Amino acid sequence: MNKNYEDVTLHQYDIEAVRQIQAWEFLTEEPSLISRGIDAMTAPVREAVQPVLDRASDAVSNTQMAKVGNAIFKGMVNFVSNASAVTVRTELIFEEFRSKNCGEVYQSVDIAALPLTMVDRVADGLAAKYKAGGIGEGAAAGSAGASGLMVDIPLLTTMALRAIGEYATYYGFDLSNKDERLYMLYVLSLGCSLDDRAKYKVVAEMQQIALRMAQAAEWQSSDKAMLLQMTKKIAEKFGDKLTKKKLMQVVPGVGAIIGAWSSSSLLADICEAAHYSYRKRFLMRQYGADVFDSQ
To answer: CB–CB of 234/188 below 8 Å?
Structure first.
């Protein structure tokens, strides 16, 4: 069903949402003020302890991080193939919709019938919850130095996937569907690409997957190798992003601060990517993909 901005059936709130999403997709973000502040504060420390960081980087990346990266990859493969790996408590989310006067919401399809303005209202605050959780988790892991890093990364991966899964559920997408769990990995990849040009490529790939899912197209056997390779690339990208953000945690005296900032910052990026991605798919489901081709 083709629509455009002037179509009376496309509500004003939805028109603004389309514009916001389009603007975000073409925006390459600059580091935040907090990020720049942290960089400025830690620059003298980084310079003073660079030899320590170099040794730590070699030791971690060549041994422990290789094991962690392999674990992340295996975990993602299991996550896509096994619905029980998704830890989102969907019934509580449905109950939240009902408690906020959104009607009889007992399954994902009930959310799909709601207006976006209502869904946005219920989902509001989700990012703040995960950013706060990231501060606590990162500070605890950062205080433990290099040993905490090995626990920190798998735990943060789990938190990131749970955050994406909650966004998916809040916007009416069923996580028991294997394709939805695969799409979540693309959201994870997008969250790692907000500050570089790879973002545009990921957005384009996600658009194609969303269209394919909307058409209920099944994955062919010939696609399996491609999907496995894609999962491996996302795992490597996510692991590399985490390593770069968190290596400073091994430096005594700043580990807790850097850990809190890096975990919260990464989860904020993941939540931002999930927020825009699932709002886009919500609107595509209601109005058709052409709504994002309209100017």
So the answer is: yes
DSSP for residue 27: -
Asked if 73 and 229 count as a contact pair (C-beta separation under 8 A), the reply is no
Tokens 């990020």 identify what position? 35
Instruction: Give the contacts of 78 (CB within 8 A, at least 6 positions apart).
Output: 85
In one-letter notation, the amino acid at residue 169 is T
pLDDT higher than threshold 70 for residue 67: no
Residues 6 or more apart whose CB falls under 8 angstroms from that of 75 comprise: 85, 154, 157
Mean of the per-residue pLDDT values of the chain: 76
Its pTM stands at 0.80
DSSP annotation of 114 = S
Query: How is residue 172 written in tokens?
Result: 């009416």
Note whether 241 and 192 are within 8 A (CB).
yes
Residues in the chain: 295
Question: Tokens 């455009």 sit at which residue?
Answer: 4
Question: What does the block give as tokens for 159?
Answer: 């938190």
